[in-house]
Amino acid sequence: MKAIEVPAIAGAYRFEPTPYADERGFFCRTFDADVVRSVGLDPDAFVQDSLSRSVRGVLRGLHLRSGAGEAKLVRCSYGRIFDVVVDLRPDSPTYRNVASFELSGDTQVTLYIPAGCAHGFQALTETADTSYRIDRPHDPAEDVTIAFDDPELAIPWPLPVTSMSGRDRKAPGLAEVLKQRELKSA
Protein backbone atom coordinates (compact mmCIF):
# COMPACT_ATOMS: atom_id res chain seq x y z
CA MET A 1 0.00 0.00 0.00
CA LYS A 2 1.23 3.48 -0.81
CA ALA A 3 0.10 6.97 0.21
CA ILE A 4 -0.23 9.62 -2.48
CA GLU A 5 -0.78 13.29 -1.64
CA VAL A 6 -3.81 15.02 -3.24
CA PRO A 7 -2.41 18.37 -4.47
CA ALA A 8 -5.83 20.09 -4.81
CA ILE A 9 -6.73 19.52 -1.12
CA ALA A 10 -4.00 20.19 1.46
CA GLY A 11 -3.63 17.27 3.85
CA ALA A 12 -5.73 14.84 1.75
CA TYR A 13 -4.27 11.49 0.67
CA ARG A 14 -5.13 8.56 -1.57
CA PHE A 15 -4.12 5.22 -0.10
CA GLU A 16 -3.59 2.80 -2.97
CA PRO A 17 -3.41 -0.87 -2.06
CA THR A 18 -1.40 -3.50 -3.88
CA PRO A 19 -3.87 -6.16 -5.02
CA TYR A 20 -2.79 -9.77 -5.39
CA ALA A 21 -4.89 -11.29 -8.16
CA ASP A 22 -5.27 -14.89 -9.28
CA GLU A 23 -7.99 -17.11 -10.73
CA ARG A 24 -10.06 -16.74 -7.52
CA GLY A 25 -10.21 -12.95 -7.70
CA PHE A 26 -7.99 -10.68 -5.63
CA PHE A 27 -6.82 -9.89 -2.11
CA CYS A 28 -5.58 -6.54 -0.85
CA ARG A 29 -5.02 -4.72 2.40
CA THR A 30 -7.42 -1.76 2.67
CA PHE A 31 -5.96 -0.27 5.86
CA ASP A 32 -2.38 -0.28 7.10
CA ALA A 33 -1.57 1.62 10.32
CA ASP A 34 2.11 1.97 9.38
CA VAL A 35 1.30 3.57 6.02
CA VAL A 36 -1.25 5.90 7.65
CA ARG A 37 1.32 6.81 10.31
CA SER A 38 3.97 7.47 7.62
CA VAL A 39 2.05 10.57 6.42
CA GLY A 40 1.56 11.96 9.92
CA LEU A 41 -1.91 10.60 10.66
CA ASP A 42 -2.80 8.72 13.83
CA PRO A 43 -4.29 5.37 12.81
CA ASP A 44 -5.78 4.95 16.30
CA ALA A 45 -7.77 8.19 15.93
CA PHE A 46 -10.48 6.49 13.85
CA VAL A 47 -13.35 5.45 16.11
CA GLN A 48 -16.32 4.49 13.92
CA ASP A 49 -16.80 2.51 10.71
CA SER A 50 -19.96 2.87 8.61
CA LEU A 51 -21.22 1.55 5.29
CA SER A 52 -23.75 2.98 2.83
CA ARG A 53 -25.30 1.14 -0.11
CA SER A 54 -26.54 3.28 -3.00
CA VAL A 55 -28.07 2.56 -6.37
CA ARG A 56 -27.04 4.19 -9.65
CA GLY A 57 -27.61 7.95 -9.67
CA VAL A 58 -28.06 8.33 -5.90
CA LEU A 59 -26.27 11.39 -4.60
CA ARG A 60 -25.17 11.76 -0.98
CA GLY A 61 -23.80 15.09 0.19
CA LEU A 62 -22.23 17.50 0.37
CA HIS A 63 -21.72 16.86 4.09
CA LEU A 64 -19.39 18.15 6.77
CA ARG A 65 -19.40 18.58 10.53
CA SER A 66 -19.38 21.77 12.52
CA GLY A 67 -17.22 22.24 15.60
CA ALA A 68 -13.98 20.29 15.43
CA GLY A 69 -15.02 18.73 12.13
CA GLU A 70 -14.46 15.13 11.19
CA ALA A 71 -11.63 13.43 9.31
CA LYS A 72 -12.67 10.46 7.18
CA LEU A 73 -11.24 7.54 5.32
CA VAL A 74 -13.63 6.78 2.42
CA ARG A 75 -13.51 3.76 0.13
CA CYS A 76 -15.86 2.29 -2.45
CA SER A 77 -15.81 -1.37 -1.49
CA TYR A 78 -18.17 -2.51 -4.27
CA GLY A 79 -19.20 -0.81 -7.52
CA ARG A 80 -18.04 2.68 -8.48
CA ILE A 81 -18.65 6.19 -7.16
CA PHE A 82 -17.85 9.74 -8.23
CA ASP A 83 -16.40 11.21 -5.03
CA VAL A 84 -16.04 14.94 -4.29
CA VAL A 85 -14.11 16.85 -1.61
CA VAL A 86 -14.43 20.61 -1.02
CA ASP A 87 -11.84 22.30 1.22
CA LEU A 88 -13.72 24.63 3.59
CA ARG A 89 -10.88 25.28 6.05
CA PRO A 90 -10.36 29.08 5.97
CA ASP A 91 -6.66 28.80 6.89
CA SER A 92 -5.90 26.13 4.27
CA PRO A 93 -3.78 26.97 1.22
CA THR A 94 -6.37 25.06 -0.84
CA TYR A 95 -9.42 26.81 0.69
CA ARG A 96 -12.52 26.40 -1.53
CA ASN A 97 -10.76 24.01 -3.90
CA VAL A 98 -12.86 21.15 -5.23
CA ALA A 99 -11.34 17.78 -6.08
CA SER A 100 -13.13 14.78 -7.57
CA PHE A 101 -12.15 11.14 -7.84
CA GLU A 102 -13.57 7.92 -9.14
CA LEU A 103 -13.37 5.29 -6.42
CA SER A 104 -14.17 1.68 -7.20
CA GLY A 105 -14.37 -1.75 -5.71
CA ASP A 106 -11.91 -2.89 -8.37
CA THR A 107 -9.10 -0.69 -7.02
CA GLN A 108 -10.08 -0.40 -3.32
CA VAL A 109 -8.36 3.02 -3.13
CA THR A 110 -9.07 4.81 0.15
CA LEU A 111 -9.33 8.58 0.27
CA TYR A 112 -8.34 10.47 3.42
CA ILE A 113 -10.44 13.63 3.84
CA PRO A 114 -9.21 16.09 6.47
CA ALA A 115 -11.57 17.62 9.04
CA GLY A 116 -13.15 20.80 7.74
CA CYS A 117 -13.70 19.51 4.21
CA ALA A 118 -17.14 18.80 2.74
CA HIS A 119 -17.67 15.43 1.12
CA GLY A 120 -20.22 13.92 -1.22
CA PHE A 121 -20.52 11.21 -3.83
CA GLN A 122 -22.73 9.79 -6.55
CA ALA A 123 -23.20 6.08 -7.27
CA LEU A 124 -22.14 5.22 -10.82
CA THR A 125 -23.12 1.55 -10.79
CA GLU A 126 -26.35 -0.32 -10.08
CA THR A 127 -25.00 -1.01 -6.59
CA ALA A 128 -22.23 0.92 -4.88
CA ASP A 129 -21.10 0.23 -1.32
CA THR A 130 -19.14 3.04 0.33
CA SER A 131 -17.20 2.49 3.54
CA TYR A 132 -16.38 5.33 5.95
CA ARG A 133 -14.00 5.36 8.87
CA ILE A 134 -14.32 8.55 10.97
CA ASP A 135 -12.16 10.03 13.71
CA ARG A 136 -14.86 10.93 16.24
CA PRO A 137 -18.32 9.68 17.12
CA HIS A 138 -21.09 11.00 14.91
CA ASP A 139 -23.28 13.71 16.44
CA PRO A 140 -26.28 14.59 14.24
CA ALA A 141 -26.48 18.03 15.91
CA GLU A 142 -23.19 18.91 14.14
CA ASP A 143 -24.30 17.87 10.65
CA VAL A 144 -23.94 20.53 7.96
CA THR A 145 -25.13 20.04 4.39
CA ILE A 146 -24.32 22.15 1.31
CA ALA A 147 -26.36 22.11 -1.91
CA PHE A 148 -24.85 19.58 -4.31
CA ASP A 149 -25.70 21.84 -7.25
CA ASP A 150 -24.32 25.10 -5.87
CA PRO A 151 -23.25 27.15 -8.93
CA GLU A 152 -20.16 28.50 -7.13
CA LEU A 153 -18.84 24.95 -6.74
CA ALA A 154 -19.95 23.87 -10.24
CA ILE A 155 -19.40 20.18 -9.51
CA PRO A 156 -19.74 18.16 -12.73
CA TRP A 157 -21.88 15.30 -11.37
CA PRO A 158 -21.68 12.62 -14.07
CA LEU A 159 -25.28 11.33 -13.92
CA PRO A 160 -28.74 12.79 -13.40
CA VAL A 161 -29.65 12.53 -9.71
CA THR A 162 -32.13 9.67 -9.23
CA SER A 163 -32.53 10.00 -5.47
CA MET A 164 -31.24 11.92 -2.46
CA SER A 165 -32.32 12.55 1.11
CA GLY A 166 -34.75 15.34 1.91
CA ARG A 167 -32.03 17.04 3.94
CA ASP A 168 -29.65 17.00 0.98
CA ARG A 169 -32.36 18.23 -1.42
CA LYS A 170 -33.15 21.23 0.84
CA ALA A 171 -29.53 22.11 1.63
CA PRO A 172 -28.49 25.76 1.47
CA GLY A 173 -25.81 27.02 -0.90
CA LEU A 174 -22.15 27.41 -0.02
CA ALA A 175 -22.37 31.18 0.64
CA GLU A 176 -25.15 30.69 3.21
CA VAL A 177 -23.29 27.85 4.97
CA LEU A 178 -20.09 29.90 5.16
CA LYS A 179 -22.01 32.88 6.52
CA GLN A 180 -23.61 30.70 9.24
CA ARG A 181 -20.22 29.24 10.19
CA GLU A 182 -18.75 32.76 10.39
CA LEU A 183 -21.53 33.90 12.72
CA LYS A 184 -21.04 30.89 15.00
CA SER A 185 -17.29 31.47 15.31
CA ALA A 186 -17.62 35.23 15.96
UniProtKB/TrEMBL annotation:
Q: Which UniProt keywords apply?
A: Isomerase
- Which InterPro entries does this entry report, sorted A to Z? RmlC-like, RmlC-like_jellyroll, RmlC_Cupin_sf
Q: Which PANTHER family match?
A: DTDP-6-DEOXY-D-GLUCOSE-3,5 EPIMERASE, THYMIDINE DIPHOSPHO-4-KETO-RHAMNOSE 3,5-EPIMERASE
Q: Which family does it belong to?
A: Belongs to the dTDP-4-dehydrorhamnose 3,5-epimerase family.
What protein name applies here?
dTDP-4-dehydrorhamnose 3,5-epimerase family protein
